[in-house]
Amino acid sequence: MFATSSSETSPASPPPSSHIPIEDARQFSSNVPTSIPRAIFLDSGDVINNSKLRGPQWIDMIGTFVPSTPLGGPGELWGIANGKLVHKLHREGLWYDLLQKCESHKVLDRLNNLLWANECSQFVNGMILEARKKRLEGAMPEAIVTKEDYSEWPLVVLPEDEEDVILISVMMHLYCLAHVKADLPGAVEAIKTLKQDQGFEMYTCSGEQSRDLTLTFRTLGLGTIGDTMTTTLEKIRKRVQDYATRYPDHATVDILGPNPKEPVPVFTQIYGPDLVDAHKNSTRFYAEIFRDCGVDPREAIVVDDKEHMLSWAKVLGVRTVLISSVDRTGREMLVCVPDPEDNSKTKMVPAVDHQLNSLAELPLLTAYWKKRLLG
Fold it and tell me: Which whole-number Å values give the CA distances from 348 to 124, 321, 335, in the listed order?
């Protein structure tokens, strides 16, 4: 949900993988497939984008945008409130509870937008009331970690109509996505190399909505083959226009920002849970994606930064790649898969076939396979 980009904090990008001698990829010599996979399916967070760096940028964007909406309020408090909510969602298990309650991704998205507006506005109002209390007591609000005294700010009032609340929440989300940039070093070039130089079909398999991924990749200069991205962007612009029509006095911020340069068409399809109406919390998510795109899982590579998510894909027969620098020796997750030599039997295999430090290394791995198998 978060991202950031800073040339001062990000490590220098490695040289383009196509320029690295293939002999340097000898470390990939184990577990070579018997044939070259056809397609690659990429997660976004911590595979393409740096989630840790994304957060500060996202908070800044919220602080810039939300005060311009009918919600108003201090931008700094909205940023703090968003951070508190993210902690509640992912550290306290609220997101998992939402997934369990919502069978449809459409319902989940609606509840998520309402949750953001309600929880964050309550937090902002709580901070304002606390500042007022401190002021009445004659004490400065040192206990509140903010840059100024917010005791004189009016309380945030949400629109009565839930649809208006959702619209404002969606606009906040779109604004952040369009203005935050946090690609990991070498990730964009690796994707281009895998598509343009090595000829793989490229897809995503992220827990983020396809709409959100489209804006993220637009910022990175990556697009889709065909008119998929154009169609999605037209829907996004229509939604932004709906907001401007509903709240003309508040449509003062360029939500989508300036048009970036023409994106490079690399993705056949940008898959999120919304396109297959399946949450990314089980094997069904991957099965629905493979069914929709027509790719045999045995001809696919799935790349993720979480081992348990790769385990859901592995049971379908895919080749899995974990992006992580964590030493998992002796702690590898095993999954039960059909025995390729006898489909009536099963066997236990590692959930992860290959582990790389970054997506930038993947073209090296696949190039090594091609050299071994094709000469």
Answer: 50, 18, 5
pLDDT value at position 31?
84
pLDDT value at residue 17: 41
Q: Could you give the C-alpha distances from 339 to 32, 342, 352, in angstroms and in order?
A: 18, 5, 17
102 contacts 17 by C-beta, under 8 angstroms = no
pLDDT for res 331 = 87
Alpha carbon of 336 to those of 122, 144, 298, 351: distances in Å? 46, 51, 15, 9
Contacts of 188 by beta carbon, 8 Å cutoff, 6+ apart: 48, 220, 221, 222
Q: φ, ψ for residue 311 (rounded to 5)?
A: -65, -35
DSSP 73: -
What gap in Å lies between CA 140 and CA 151, rounded to an integer? 10
Over residues 53-62, mean pLDDT: 93
CA end-to-end distance (rounded Å), the chain: 42
Contact 161, 174 (CB under 8 A): no
H/E element, 119? helix 105-136
Rounded (10°) CA dihedral 262, 267, 268, 272? -110
Q: Is the dihedral of CA 371, 372, 374, 375 positive or negative?
A: positive
pLDDT recorded at residue 339: 79
Name the token pair of 224: 């889709």
pLDDT at residue 365, as a whole number:
94
pLDDT, tens digit (0-9, with 9 covering 90-100), for 285-318: 999 999 999 999 999 999 999 999 999 999 999 9
Asked if pLDDT for residue 325 goes beyond 50, the answer is yes
